[in-house]
Amino acid sequence: MATFVEGPSGIREMGKHYFTMWQTLFEIDTKYVPIKPIGRGAYGVVCSSINRETNEKVAIKKINNVFENRIDATRTLRELMLLRHIRHDNVIALKDVMMPIHTKNFKDVYLVYELMDTDLHQIIKSSQPLSNDHCKYFIFQLLCGLEYLHSANILHRDLKPGNLLVNANCDLKICDFGLARTGIGSGQFMTEYVVTRWYRAPELLLCSDNYGTSIDVWSVGCIFAEILGRKPIFPGTECLNQLKLIINILGSPQEADIEFIDNVKARKYIKSLPFTRGIHLSHLYPHADPLAIDLLQKMLVFDPTKRITVVEALQHPYMSGLYDPKFIPPVQVPLTLDIDETLGEQKIRELMLNEMLYYHPEAVSAYS
């Protein structure tokens, strides 16, 4: 539980109060009353809280020493900048970013999100039964959120069960946009690490440096399979092992299916692997709805040019009764968000402060 404590050196800054949770000090705005810690990772600690002004339950994520690692600082900035523009029922809402006391040398960042109960990873590994309707509703919502993101010119690039938050009535929301990029179809090269390995598309494993929305569709397919089987479909130990697992299940790709590979060595490696007919997905998931298997097969296609699109997936018969394009209009203004990966700490700090001020217009004059 959250424990109220005195501030550092016994000083209490105006508008802030202090709590400890899991040996972590939280310096938060007085309008937020923390309840309990609910998650922890390399970034820091997440706690549930109540906004006393609105009586709304929220989640507060403290990112510790955000400038200790420039890459992590850039990812945090990207999340702030993207989520300010994103409004969709199936994407997590960023409610607030707390203003620091010391704007010139702050170390920690506090993000306030809408509160969700758990994530899909926890549900999959639990003993809770998942019906076909559960599976269909989760995948439908994931595709709806992804259709919105892709229409807004955003690749998520790190879809996995742990980045899909769920509440008690099975509402699903995509989170964690630290690896996301805008600029779909721009022809830009995006060679930075993307996607946790088990959910990484073949074109990324094969070092393709020019990819598109199909990488997110592959990740959805891996998540779909994991819901059906209650375990990852391709739990590779490293990159080459990951490719072997994919080919062992999908079967050896034909010559026409590896034309997209622009790396000669990578193409040669694929050809060198022993021939396999693969395993039909209905044998892996014998209790699954045949329409679910059909959609899954269309997602887990080796050649990204032949993989089903998000819109096509939503129009698939498996989604019958759920998808109505009239109620899910595409975004009207695609985002273009370029963040220089070589930005220094001071510039990142300035840009973060600009994002914080968006949520605190009353403070703009003090920092202008």
Automatic annotation (TrEMBL):
Its EC number is 2.7.11.24. It comes from Momordica charantia. Residues 32-319 form the Protein kinase domain. Interacts with MKK3. CDD domains: STKc_TEY_MAPK. Its cofactor is Mg(2+). The keyword Lipid metabolism does not apply. Keywords: ATP-binding, Kinase, Magnesium, Nucleotide-binding, Phosphoprotein, Serine/threonine-protein kinase, Transferase. Belongs to the protein kinase superfamily. Ser/Thr protein kinase family. MAP kinase subfamily. One of its GO terms (molecular function) is MAP kinase activity. InterPro entries: Kinase-like_dom_sf, MAP_kinase_CS, MAPK, Prot_kinase_dom, Protein_kinase_ATP_BS, Ser/Thr_kinase_AS. It catalyses: L-threonyl-[protein] + ATP = O-phospho-L-threonyl-[protein] + ADP + H(+); L-seryl-[protein] + ATP = O-phospho-L-seryl-[protein] + ADP + H(+). Activated by threonine and tyrosine phosphorylation. SMART domains: S_TKc (SM00220). The lineage of its organism: Eukaryota, Viridiplantae, Streptophyta, Embryophyta, Tracheophyta. ATP binds at residue 62. SUPFAM superfamilies: Protein kinase-like (PK-like). This is Mitogen-activated protein kinase.
